[in-house]
Amino acid sequence: MTVNDDSFTDWKTREETAESMIPIIGNLHRERDVTILLHSRSLVNKSVVSILKTHRFARQIAGEELSVTETLPFLKALTTLDLGPSQIDLGMLAATYRNDGRGLTVEEFTAEAVAGATGENKIERREARDVVLYGFGRIGRLLARLLIEKAGSGNGLRLRAIVVRKGGAQDIVKRASLLRRDSIHGQFQGTITVDEASGTIVANGNEIKMIYADDPSEVDYTAYGVKNAILIDNTGRWRDRAGLSQHLRPGIDKVVLTAPGKGDVLNVVHGVNHEMIKPDEQILSCASCTTNAIVPPLKAMADEYGVLRGHVETVHSFTNDQNLLDNYHKSDRRGRSAPLNMVITETGAASAVAKALPDLDARITGSSIRVPVPDVSIAILSLRLGRETTREEVLEYLRNVSLTSPLKRQIDFTNAPDAVSSDFIGSRHASIVDAGATKVEGDDAILYLWYDNEFGYSCQVVRVVQHVSGVEYPTFPVPVA
């Protein structure tokens, strides 16, 4: 047998193993509300090739490829346990088992590592919490995709309605079409049908009512069967408490804004300050995509090295706020053609840091340049640290943060030598540390942080909504603080 034959046989064996994992992962998700992850990446509803690629990706952050033959025994061990709703990371299970050294079997180690989700410790499955989208633009449609995806077990969050201004004939058909296919993020994963007579979109079995209104005061959500709902305003039209309070209508319990909040509205970056949300808080903001990208790594660096001051330069993809061709715009420069120019503009991300990290004394400044790409941006975070260090130490630290810390859902890590922006379309992390571009000299550090300013940010918004709704299930093994 040739070397090539050996490689092909190995591939077929791994394919067969991945195939056997799919029904186990699906059953755990549907029957027990357990989401299987691999280094923070969900394996639910993934194909054979996607499962294998996710395992192979582990080599970039963990230093070596993770084999499906290594993770399958942990997955099988989970099926023997009395598991409650939770997220379980096979990558972390395999890594911690490898370093355990006590001679436990896979079954014994797994039972111990996820004990917080079993028996008397497990939490009960909760009834679905209603969600309403106010607005259905770029972020709104991605939120819809994520909410529909996460409704798989029938628990958690349930998208019940979308509120928009009517755009004309066949409005609901056209909006459903935009949900079905996207030039950047590809096809919707599932089926979508439209009932024009009832004004309903049915996506993967989820019935979503399309409500037409020009103003929040026009809607009584209880008339559509919506109750105790979380409304996500992705229009950006209102940003202060007075404006957003207009959404607190019959059927709506809380309002979440997908833009930086003004005044006393709490700006939340999940993973950093979401624990500050009070149970009775009805109005909050998820800040901006750039704030979500820079705050988690800034916190990580401040925790380990201290940060005396910093500057963030954002190279940001163009947005719908800009003009396709030169035309009048109320803001300076943004009236110039977005796909033809680099456009210097302002960013509120630097000032928003103080709201998300009130204990950080360092002064952070910022500026932004819009560039002719439709998605994925990069934040260049230049920091003066509290002590001297080395590039190798910083990269090893951030790599470990991305693997095992409480920020592992926010911070990703790549050492790919030829990484470019399009590689990160669809990333579910708030930001991705580019190891190859990182620069450290003494107490100066420059981090290059990629982020999908559409999808990665939408994932952060959903995490906040899950937290305030009470359906943010714990992750095991528990990340190291």
Characterise this structure.
With about 475 residues, this protein is of the alpha/beta class. About 30% of the residues lie in helices and about 25% in strands. The protein has 12 helices and 22 strands. It has helices spanning about 5-30, 50-60, 70-80, 90-100, 105-115, 140-150, 170-180, 240-245, 290-305, 350-355, 390-405, 455-470; strands spanning about 35-40, 40, 85-90, 130-135, 155-165, 180, 185, 190-195, 200-205, 205-210, 230-235, 250-255, 265, 285, 305-315, 345, 365-370, 375-390, 410-415, 430-435, 440-450, 475. The protein has a 9-stranded mixed sheet. β1 and β2 (about 40) form a beta hairpin. The longest helix is centred in the first third of the chain and has 30 residues, at about 5-30. It is globular and about 65 Å long.
Write the layout of secondary structure elements.
Elements: H1 3-32, E1 34-38, E2 41-42, H2 48-62, H3 68-79, E3 86-89, H4 90-98, H5 106-113, E4 129-134, H6 138-149, E5 157-164, H7 171-180, E6 181-182, E7 186-187, E8 192-195, E9 200-203, E10 206-212, E11 229-233, H8 241-244, E12 252-257, E13 266-267, E14 283-285, H9 289-305, E15 307-317, E16 343-345, H10 349-356, E17 363-371, E18 377-389, H11 391-404, E19 411-414, E20 431-434, E21 439-451, H12 455-469, E22 475-476
Parallel strand pairs: 1-3, 3-22, 4-5, 4-11, 5-10, 11-12, 12-14, 13-14, 15-17, 19-20
Antiparallel strand pairs: 1-2, 6-7, 8-9, 9-10, 15-18, 16-17, 18-21, 20-21
Helix pairs in contact: 1-2, 1-3, 3-4, 3-5, 6-12, 9-10
